[in-house]
Here is the input.
Amino acid sequence: GSFGVCGGAEREEKKMKALASKAQVIKINLVFLGFFLVIYVALLLQPPFLYDGAGAATVRCSLRDCHMKKAEEDGNGVMPKGEEKRRTLPKKTIPSFPGKQRWNARIGLVNLGEDEVKAGAGQRAVEVRFDRVSEQFEWKHLFPEWIDEEEDNEGPSCPEIPMPDFSEHEEVDAVAARLPCRYPEAGWARDVFRLQVHLVVANLAVRRAKRDGRGQVRLALLSSCRPMIEIFRSEEMVRREDGWWVYEASVGRLEEKVAMPVGSCKLALPLWGEGTNDEFDYSKFSIPMAPPRKEAYVTVLHSSDAYVCGAIALAQGIIRTGTRRDLVLLHDKSIPDPKRRALAAAGWQLRKIKRIRNPRAQKNSYNEYNYSKFRLWQLTDYAKVVFVDADVAVLRNLDLLFHFPEMSATGNDGVIFNSGIMVIEPSNATFAMLMEKRGEIVSYNGGDQGFLNEVFVWWHRLPRRVNFLKNFWSNTSAEAHLKNGLFGVDPPVLYAIHYLGLKPWLCYRDYDCNWNVADQRVYASDVAHRTWWRLHDVMDPSLQPFCGLSEQRKTELDWDRQKAELAGFPDAHWKLNISDRRRHEKQTPHDPLTRSRR
Ligand SMILES: *[C@@H]1O[C@H](CO)[C@@H](O)[C@H](O)[C@H]1NC(C)=O
Ligand SMILES: *[C@@H]1O[C@H](CO)[C@@H](O)[C@H](O)[C@H]1NC(C)=O
Ligand SMILES: *[C@@H]1O[C@H](CO)[C@@H](O)[C@H](O)[C@H]1NC(C)=O
Ligand SMILES: *[C@@H]1O[C@H](CO)[C@@H](O)[C@H](O)[C@H]1NC(C)=O
Here is the structure.
């Protein structure tokens, strides 16, 4: 009937052009609306004729996924118990595993039904059941911005992620799993259910390997998304086959990871001994450790030599903590010879790299080459690396960080970690993956921090004190009092201070020049400034000239001071006379140290 109305409308229009009224337009619109509604409902209900036969290929979700969506809609959020009748899709054949021995054993199925897979000859597939996390459970519950890490109140706690009863699966020899993948939906990587399935698989694998002391365990993971590299090392992926990612996972590494809290809702590293107010005694701290392996502190300098002084002071700080790890500095061609010699004299082993461009960055922007940090993953002669930014001052021994798996870092804001200090595990496969994703992943700040936070969404929280950010976000005297107390105390309680804003070596030593720049004042702390200069003053005198000021930088400092005076900032740092000798020292023409300010 509806098309009749349409035809009628045309005839009417011919007869009475002048009377073509709004009412008719509305009618036509309603008709079309009705038509599309019918199609819409048909698609939504997906009656069998859309499903059957060859049509199966066009169905977007697997049966298990569709089925579970319905289960959620029922509001229980619990994995179905499996008695329900499932429609039949072609069964997935579990891939064979490499190596000589046949995989003639019991296979634990995670998020996969027994009727969905075809086991090989002699294989027996057994479902591993667990309660699915509720839809209300969001990533930010696992990665809160702030936790009570100093245990002023109850101390931090994590929400529970349901796990299977592992005692029922003691006999499992290998694991096959379907990993949820909501890509390219926004936020697909921060999916709690996806993490849950990964953790179930990892825990089964670790338990299986512990049983007979074997170091390896075989996994077959079905997903159109790459399995989380935070859990399954890219190195250990041996093959892709028909939608499956096949792994031979080494259990030592996996064990380190399942020993971590489920999110940054708890510290990876306890700060206080249990039930005491004393700082934790790290010598008692034990997490499974492989036999002695090569480890290093590493920093990266690229695109300009503005951070050379920072890197010298950084080496100074690290060496003074008595570490026996290597110090490695990656640099590109922007560091001239005399400065390279100074860096080596400061204790760095230098390695030249080719810097890496962010294909999404604007040409000649200040962070165009910030992806150079990816080269850290190419240091495969080291099992673990603690990366430290050159604008960090290390005050206490950080060797305990080598106990932690990739990716361990301190919180920045929201669910994001700060990339100023990171524990990473070099790997050519991870490096290749980072390079491959350069074009696809959008970094929220155009820098490496934004990028790495999209790749390593599951990270482990180190205490704030490991990488204490020099900023004051609340603009209260309470915050200033607390933080300045920590920045200044000697012997230090902070492990490292991260100098955000204008760097101390680009200011006069008299005060923190962040005070004089309107949008940098949140980073200003004279106490932290003095702490950095103490480190400077114990540097070898032959290295101190590498912290000089260029004529241009002196002009900028003067300019900022005048603007601060005009603005009349109430802290009145602009009134202070400068006694810093560097004000009158000329830099040698070959050593224009600071070309730009960041
Ligand atoms: C990683 O790649 C480099 C060369 O690209 C090679 O020299 C090194 O041995 C590789 N490391 C491992 C562990 O395979
Ligand atoms: C890019 O690198 C420079 C130099 O290391 C640093 O000052 C800047 O903060 C970085 N930018 C971002 C957005 O990470
Ligand atoms: C910080 O507080 C002072 C007064 O306590 C106020 O004058 C100033 O505008 C505040 N700054 C910001 C950035 O909110
Ligand atoms: C800075 O120096 C001038 C002259 O040398 C002096 O009059 C003034 O009091 C000094 N200001 C401060 C804050 O010390």
In short: The pocket of 2-acetamido-2-deoxy-beta-D-glucopyranose (ligand 2) is lined by residues 367, 370, 445-449, 598 (CB under 6 Å). The first strand starts at residue 92 and ends at 93. Residues 90-258 form a domain with the Rossmann fold fold (CATH 3.40.50).
